[in-house]
From TrEMBL, chain A:
Residues 3-232 form the ABC transporter domain. It comes from the Bacteria. SMART domains: AAA. The keyword Calcium does not apply. The keyword Transport applies. GO terms for molecular function: ATP binding; ATP hydrolysis activity. PANTHER family: ABC TRANSPORTER ATP-BINDING PROTEIN, ABC TRANSPORTER ATP-BINDING PROTEIN NATA. Belongs to the ABC transporter superfamily. Keywords: ATP-binding, Nodulation, Nucleotide-binding, Transport. Gene3D superfamilies: P-loop containing nucleotide triphosphate hydrolases. It holds the Pfam family ABC_tran. This is ABC-2 type transport system ATP-binding protein.
TrEMBL record, chain B:
Keywords: Membrane, Transmembrane, Transmembrane helix. GO terms for molecular function: ABC-type transporter activity. It comes from the Bacteria. Residues 59-359 form the ABC-2 type transporter transmembrane domain. It holds the Pfam family ABC2_membrane_3. This is ABC-2 type transport system permease protein. It is found in: Membrane. Its main location: membrane. The lineage of its organism: Bacteria, Pseudomonadati, Pseudomonadota, Gammaproteobacteria, Chromatiales.
Length: 309, 398
């Protein structure tokens, strides 16, 4: 399965939800759509699912030497942003119904269901009504519903939302299992730590536009050589003092004697440290690359600055 | 025509509302209520009691099963005192003297009771007899005087089967059954479609089935529920008929009056009518975002109008109104079977009406599918009537 999206745009009345966005996803990859609320992620997903059509641009899907201008339903597994199944029906009945709609026989559906219920530790609760489950467990059932029929492409809108950290890790494992089965996955998320662990490619969006795209390394490069210095000092220090000594830097005070300095392009590590040594007794200095979370925040701030300018 | 997915949706929808245990319990409760009403009316039936009525000595009124007329010799005041204290009598009848300013009969009782109406009838008959005697009328003359005019109707239109015929009862039964069926479908379609939208299942389903497949499944499932309700109600009606024939009237079950030819036509008309109405309800329900705030739900009741209009013209089955209703595809499912039950029609008329109904059903199902799709694409915004009409007139599907 290969998906090539070229310059798609979508307007809802006066609102430009998506503006000239392009990306490509190769078979068996995990692709993450990132961005704040209202960035256009769900609009892109709805176009991929076929609920809406792009006003301009194209979507090209290639699967087993066949080409389509949309994602065929039989190849698609979907977890919508607005979740919901039948609360007064059991897990088993819900999943069996959706699997049969996907074309699975009852035997196939029960076999696949047994596997995924086991993965999510829900086997013993399969006969319980959905409304009896916690929100997190309902989310797991919904995830199972999206993949029971082994689709070539799985689209998951916010798969981590509403889950506690332990269950978020389980979803990471689940997504890796999908990848191992050869499924292509598109997900949208806010949980950068999770995305960093999973995604082969990502697209960072803001106000309907693509800001950054590529692998994590590509994005780090596009965002500029941003570095972080984690510093510990002997005595206490305040944020005001640090701001006074280093007014041009992004500073985050972690504890009374520990803080982080974020340097962007053109800012020298040695010059910064020299200025600090005059004021403080440094006990530990550690250099780190910016993580996805930081890159995301920086890119968003940069985008806002540009838009305002 | 109907895809496998639609059949799966139809089965799911049918079984979703088919709770046989609750249904059985509701039937048992209904029977218990009917039994309680019957028992209550039996034990409170005043006509089975015997009432003692004091009348003046000159009254020659005869006793009946219900009333014993006694002629006490004591004074009226004492009679009334006894009526009040010991209930020696249930009533005391007095007659004003002929010389009184306003002559009349007076009934003294403790309070108003239902048996007093029967007593009034008895007293009326007695006084009529008295007046007849005074006028020197023979009993035969009096009977003739009391008989209403026997007006016989002769219909020259040979196709008209008659006014109060068994066929008319069938026609009325059909209208009642259609009303029951459409009421069932009304509740279920509204609950199922708006519920699914509110529970956010629709977006998930959209990724699996087309809006048309989804709507076809819904319409079929709920139409089956409606037909089930109609068949169950028909069986209950039949059961009541058998009980009344065998137990109450002590007759055998006689179904010779049933016109099986007309009944055979009823089935396709009823089925297509329910499907057409369910499509219309589905289209309206699909345009509702939140049933608590939308006023569109009431529009679904339009589907009851064909039965109402037909009922209003049921006594003029050959009239213009009935003719229009029996041809118009939106009303023919109710009107044509009624007309057929009451008037002999050539076979091509119901056949053509049925064909028009099929065409209307096809158009309505496509419209319902379109409205569901467009409504879903509006994400939480309810379409206006102008938009719905626009979608109805456009031919675009997905």
């Amino acid at each position: 399965m290969q998906l090539i999206v070229t310059a798609i745009s979508k307007d809802y009345g006066p609102v430009a939800a998506v503006r000239q966005v392009s990306f490509q996803i190769n078979s068996g990859n995990i692709f993450a759509l990132l961005g704040p609320n209202g960035a256009g992620k769900s609009s892109i997903i709805r176009m991929l699912v076929g609920m809406t059509r792009p006003d301009s641009g194209s979507i090209l899907v290639s699967h087993q030497d066949q080409h389509y201008d949309h994602v065929p339903r039989r190849l698609l597994g979907y977890l919508p942003e607005d979740r919901g199944l039948y609360p007064d029906k059991s897990i088993e009945k819900n999943l069996l119904y959706l699997a049969q709609l996907h074309g699975l026989s009852k035997q196939q559906a029960l076999k696949e269901m047994a596997h995924w219920l086991d993965v999510f530790e829900l086997t013993d609760r399969r006969l319980e009504d959905l409304k009896q489950l916690s929100k997190g467990n309902q989310q797991k059932v919904q995830l199972i519903a999206a993949v029971l029929h082994q689709p070539a492409l799985v689209i998951l809108d916010e798969p981590f939302s509403g889950l506690d950290p332990i269950n978020q890790e389980k979803v990471v494992t689940f997504l890796k299992a999908l990848k191992a089965r050869g499924m292509t996955v598109i997900l949208s998320a806010h949980q950068m730590a999770m995305v960093e662990k999973l995604a082969d490619h990502m697209l960072l969006m803001a106000q309907g536009k693509a800001i950054l795209s590529g692998t994590l390394a590509d994005i780090q490069q596009q965002a500029g050589p941003q570095r972080q210095i984690h510093i510990s000092c002997a005595g206490p220090v305040t944020a005001e003092q640090l701001q006074q000594w280093l007014p041009e830097l992004d500073i985050e005070l972690l504890t009374a004697n520990r803080f982080v300095l974020r340097l962007s392009a053109g800012q020298s590590v040695s010059a910064t440290l020299k200025r600090l040594v005059n004021e403080l007794e440094l006990t530990q200095v550690e250099m780190q690359s910016a993580d996805l979370h930081q890159l995301y925040l920086t890119a968003m701030a940069e985008h806002q600055r540009r838009e305002q300018a | 025509m109907i895809s496998r997915q639609s059949m799966i949706v139809a089965k799911w929808e049918f079984l979703r509302f088919f709770k046989w245990k609750q249904q059985l319990i509701s039937y048992l409760l209904m029977m218990a209520v009917m039994a309680a009403v019957a028992l209550w009316s039996y034990f409170t039936d005043e006509s089975r009691k015997v009432y003692r009525i004091a009348v003046p000595a000159q009254f020659s009124i005869s006793n009946t099963e219900q009333f014993q007329f006694q002629r006490p010799t004591i004074a009226l005041d004492e009679q009334l005192a006894q009526l009040k204290d010991s209930e020696s009598w249930h009533g005391v009848v007095t007659v004003s003297p002929a010389t009184a300013a306003e002559p009349g009969v007076v009934l003294h009782t403790l309070a108003a009771k239902k048996w007093q109406q029967q007593l009034e009838t008895e007293l009326n008959n007695y006084f009529r007899q008295q007046y007849a005697t005074e006028l020197q009328l023979t009993p035969a003359q009096l009977t003739r005087l009391q008989q209403p005019l026997a007006l016989e109707y002769v219909y020259l239109d040979e196709d008209f089967k008659g006014k109060d015929t068994p066929e008319k009862m069938i026609a009325l039964g059909v209208l009642i059954l259609l009303f029951i069926g459409l009421s069932t479908a009304f509740g279920q379609v509204l609950l199922s479609i708006t519920g699914e939208k509110q529970q956010r299942v629709t977006e998930q389903l959209y990724a699996i089935v087309t809006p048309q497949q989804w709507m076809d499944g819904k319409v079929l499932g709920h139409s089956l529920s409606a037909m089930k309700a109609m068949v169950t109600s028909a069986l209950v009606m039949l059961l009541v008929f058998i009980v009344v024939s065998v137990v109450v009237r002590d007759n055998g079950v006689n179904l010779s009056w049933v016109n099986w030819g007309v009944l055979a036509w009823l089935v396709p008309f009823a089925l297509l009518g329910v499907l057409l109405s369910a499509c219309f309800m589905g289209a309206i329900a699909a345009s509702i975002d939140d049933p608590n705030t939308s006023g569109k739900g009431a529009v679904m009741m339009i589907t009851w109008l064909p039965m109402l209009f037909t009922y209003l013209v049921i006594d003029s089955p050959t009239g213009t109104a009935m003719t229009i209703l029996s041809w118009l595809p939106l009303t023919s499912f109710a009107a044509m079977p009624v007309k057929m039950a009451m008037v002999e029609l050539p076979w091509w008329q119901p056949a053509l009406s049925l064909l028009l109904l099929v065409a209307a059903l096809w158009w309505m199902r496509r419209l319902a599918g379109r409205i569901f799709l467009r409504g879903m694409q509006m994400y939480g915004k309810e379409p206006g009537w102008g938009q719905i009409v626009g979608w109805a007139l456009s031919n675009k599907s997905e």
